[in-house]
Design a protein that fits this description.
This protein has 541 residues and is of the alpha/beta class. The protein is built from 18 helices and 13 strands. The relative contact order is 0.07.
């Protein structure tokens, strides 16, 4: 078996083992299970990353049977010097914070307290590197007291968790990058990143959508790029974007109203060597209180923006607060009215589109998932936004995706691409509705694109190709003439097929048509007479 595939299988087995421990102690399907699983998994990852790095710095540690025993022999000054040489993406750990130390001391009384205090101390000592901020300035620590979620037998619960960690190591896979960890991350959170009926539903953006967005945005080498998602969720779009640019060539910025999503995004950044961006991960309300600003207080502008914003959400409790003079330029097209019956039916995504347009740098690019209805709606905020995108010459193209590309929602979606340097036009509109195959995803049906179909979409878009019945390349003037429609289908040529036939064949066809019409008209007259006869026979009783 391929070594990477085998390691992936073993990693997933570790995750299953941790879930099994939770289930055995009454936490299966509990609302706090995901905190325990993700934090214990992260503790293991950081422990092994520390081991990997110190062995690179001191070859002697790599040669001995137990690096933990050898490193304990260090003088404090030597140990401090070793910590100073670690990369910024590595947590600074003390010998009594290693997993091996907990394993060796698991029989001491009040082990749960030792377990909790170990994780909390790691979190506090690495607070400047790994903490997510709230928009109010508070810091959300890396770990918390996990044993408190178990009602009794807390010592046994923590021992069981530690015992699952000791016979597994990440050390031999740290050279792997995004593709490996993307699969592991999705498996890790697959039961916890679903719409559980709460106010803020978190959906996992399909990999095909994320890949297409990143590949169509990043078409040339860049460096020192700023990447932003105003509704980041667990970070699928940002990870794909960073991978396309290069993790060491970009800085991630995000904001999301969900603390759960912000914590998952932090985990994703750690797994994907983007720890340097964790200070820019903010838990907060992007529309009401956008966090990322320049020193003069103005909103920060970004080179790349990706977003899969919530399509519908009740934001009636703060929508009036957005209608201020300060926000007039940011929300130029206005805000939706609050429905009287179902406030949760408010279409919030146009507000995010406007915020993204406002947040692009002079040559910035963006890719936004929108309901397909947005690209043709002939009135309201949506129409005003499309007009502005054309008048300001910042539209790059639209890719309308196949139905059910998201298994969790029946809404058809399109990807809206913006590019403030696309002043000449050359806009690609694409209809991919005929691509993909339908597969079962739990109780839902979803459409999955094949690899060659993904490449066809990406290459057609990036090469500005017009393909009959699939894509068109149009100008800003042509879009304005079509009443600002972004639908590819409205620009496709109507093809009329002509067939050469003889006079005799033409006469025969005409006679056939005439005969059929005569028959249909006769049948119609009989039906008409029958109905009239029935009507005359009706009497009032």
């Amino acid at each position: 078996m391929n070594r990477t595939l085998e390691f992936e299988r073993n990693t997933k087995a570790l995750i299953d083992d941790l879930k099994s421990v939770c289930a055995n102690y009454g936490l299966g399907n509990d609302g706090n299970e995901f905190k325990i699983i993700t934090q214990v998994f992260l503790y293991k990852f950081l422990n092994d990353k520390f081991a990997f790095e110190v062995k690179q710095l001191d070859n002697k540690l790599a040669k001995v049977e137990s690096w933990e025993t050898e490193i304990k022999k260090y003088k404090q000054t030597d140990y401090d010097l070793l910590l100073m040489q670690l990369s910024e993406s590595t947590a600074r750990l003390k010998p009594d914070q290693f997993i091996s130390y907990l394993f060796e001391n698991q029989n001491q009384s009040k082990f749960a307290e030792l377990f909790d205090s170990t994780l909390m101390d790691i979190a506090k000592e690495n607070i400047d590197i790994f903490s997510v901020k709230t928009d109010g300035g508070e810091k959300i620590l890396l770990f918390e007291n996990l044993s408190r979620y178990v009602i009794d037998k807390r010592d046994e619960f923590c021992k069981a968790l530690v015992n699952k960690l000791v016979n597994f190591s990440f050390e031999h896979i740290f050279h792997e990058k995004f593709d490996f960890y993307a699969t592991i991350f999705e498996y890790l959170i697959k039961d916890y990143n679903t719409n559980s009926g709460g106010k803020y539903a978190e959906y996992f953006t399909p990999h095909a959508v994320a890949k297409i967005m990143a590949s169509c945005l990043v078409t040339e080498r860049v460096k020192n790029a700023t990447c932003y998602d105003p509704s980041a969720g667990s970070g699928t779009l940002l990870m794909n974007l960073a991978h396309a640019i290069g993790e060491d060539k970009c800085t991630i910025y995000s904001q999301d109203i969900s603390q759960k999503s912000s914590n998952l995004l932090r985990l994703n950044l750690i797994l994907n060597n983007l720890v340097h961006s964790i200070p820019n991960i903010v838990k907060g309300n992007t529309l009401l209180d956008p966090y990322h600003r320049e020193k003069d207080g103005k909103l920060k502008k970004f080179d790349f923006i990706v977003s899969n914003p919530p399509f519908k959400l009740d934001f009636s409790d703060f929508v009036e607060d957005l209608k201020t003079k300060e926000n007039h330029e940011r929300f130029f097209a206005g805000m939706p009215n609050v429905p009287k019956v179902k406030p949760e039916g408010m279409a919030i995504y146009p507000a995010f589109i406007q915020h993204i347009m406002f947040s692009l740098s002079d040559k910035g690019r963006a890719a936004i998932v929108v309901p397909t209805g947005f690209i043709t709606k002939q009135s309201g905020i949506e129409k005003k936004i499309r007009e502005q995108l054309v008048e300001k010459k910042m539209l790059r193209g639209v890719v309308s995706m196949p139905s059910n590309i998201f298994a969790t929602t029946g809404t058809n979606v399109s990807i809206l691409f913006l590019d403030k340097s696309n002043t000449k036009g050359d806009i690609v509109l694409m209809d991919t509705s005929k691509l993909g195959e339908t597969v079962k995803d739990g109780k839902n049906q979803k459409t999955v694109l094949r690899n060659d179909e993904e490449e066809k979409i990406i290459n057609t878009f990036n090469e500005h190709k017009a393909i009959e019945g699939f894509s068109v390349v149009v100008s800003y003037e042509q879009i304005a003439e079509k009443n600002y429609s972004f639908s590819a289908g409205q620009y496709f040529d109507v093809k009329i097929d002509y067939t050469n036939i003889s006079i005799e064949e033409f006469s025969a066809k005409m006679e056939e048509f005439q005969s059929r019409l005569d028959s249909m008209f006769a049948e119609s007259r009989d039906l008409e007479m029958g109905i009239q006869k029935k009507l005359k026979g009706l009497k009032y009783e």
